[in-house]
Amino acid sequence: MKKKKILFTVIVTAVSVLGIFVYSWRTGEVRLSSQDIGISAGQAILIDAHTGRVIYEKSADEKAYPASTTKIMTAMITIQTLEKYDSPIKQKVKVPPGAEGTEGSSIYLKTGEMISIEDLLYGLMLVSGNDSAEALAEIIGGSRENFVDMMNKKAKELGCSGTHFENPSGLFDEKHYTTARDMAVIAAEAMKNRRFRQIVSEDVWHAERENSDYLAFRNKNKTIRQFEGGNGIKIGYTENSGRTLVASAKRGDEEVICVVMSAPDWFNDAYSLMEYGFEML
Questions:
Q1: Could you give the CA distance from residue 184 to residue 168 in angstroms, rounded to a whole number?
Q2: From the CA atom positions of the chain, what is the Rg in Å?
Q3: Do residues 222 and 233 touch, judged by C-beta distance below 8 A?
Q4: Considering the entire predicted model, what is its pTM?
Q5: Order of strands, sheet of 43-48, starting from the edge strand that comes earlier in the sequence
Q6: pLDDT band per the 50, 70, 90 thresholds, residue 28
Q7: Residues 18 and 99 placed together within one structural domain of the fold
Q8: Which domain holds residue 8?
Q9: 200 and 129 fall within a common domain
Q10: Are the CB atoms for 197 and 208 separated by under 8 Å?
Q11: Residue 234 in marked binding region
């Protein structure tokens, strides 16, 4: 027994030095290293969506900037608040002044426009409307500041100690940050909600708007079209944060969630990780 234990230790040490495998003492698994999977991401994590078990990680606790993957939290807070107060998602609301002209990606909201919360959520998650994020923050939170407080409170409840939000959209701010591990926790929580899952898995959504020609929202998250079993959830990009992607896929009873951050080859990174995940489950 002693010889076998020594031999195993030598093997694990040797392959770790060679960069072939990484042994996780926490999970008791041998996993491929980032070099072997071939991902470009600076930070990454892959989890079993049902159990939260980590299948793979790379610098998962390193500070990173979430960009528009922030909107996962924005959508989750919105949906959970509606459900808490039994408020209809199809109700029409008036777009507040702070939403119009928001920097970055947009669904071109106009101040005073009447639009359903449902359409705002699809605009938020499919085409990454920053104006949708600002509108929802004011409508759901009563004020932008209060909504951001709700986001941070939820992050704390989930144990995401490496996360702090400054805005509902993900526009770059030095004080707006997360980690790959925290983002996986947030994503897993959001994906438990039936309404959220329905939204992020939609390919194209047709909004009902009276004074706008922008009605068809096509999901920018290509994983739902390109990866077998792809069912969500959000892409993100700013010049400062780089390319960030939270993706999920379900095959049979198995489901995985991956997060890649600071990832030049974001979609291929996600595909490699999720394929590996299904092989390991």
A1: 18
A2: 20
A3: no
A4: 0.89
A5: 54-58, 43-48, 254-261, 242-251, 230-238
A6: very low
A7: no
A8: 1-32
A9: yes
A10: no
A11: yes
* The pLDDT value given to residue 36: 66
Using DSSP's 3-state secondary structure scheme, residue 18 falls into helix
In tens, the pLDDT along 70-116 reads 999 999 999 999 999 999 999 999 999 999 999 999 999 999 999 99
**Residues 16 and 74 reside in one and the same domain:** no
Do 149 and 185 belong to one domain? yes
79 and 158 together in one domain: yes
In whole angstroms, what is the distance from residue 228 CA to residue 166 CA?
Answer: 35
DSSP character string of 82-122: HHHTT--TT-EEEPPTTTTT-SSS-----TT-EEEHHHHHH
Q: Which helix (H) or strand (E) holds 187?
A: helix 180-190
| Same domain? 10 vs 50 | no
User: Which are the catalytic amino acids?
Assistant: 68, 71, 128
Q: What share of the chain is helix, strand, coil (3-state, %, to 5)?
A: 40, 20, 40
Residues 27, 150: one domain? no
Q: Supply the CATH number for residue 232's domain.
A: 3.40.710.10
- How many separate domains does the chain show? 2
Judge if 2 and 117 occupy the same domain: no
Dump pLDDT digits (tens) for 142-198: 999 999 999 999 999 999 999 999 999 999 999 999 999 999 999 999 999 999 999
Q: Which H or E run contains 43?
A: strand 43-48
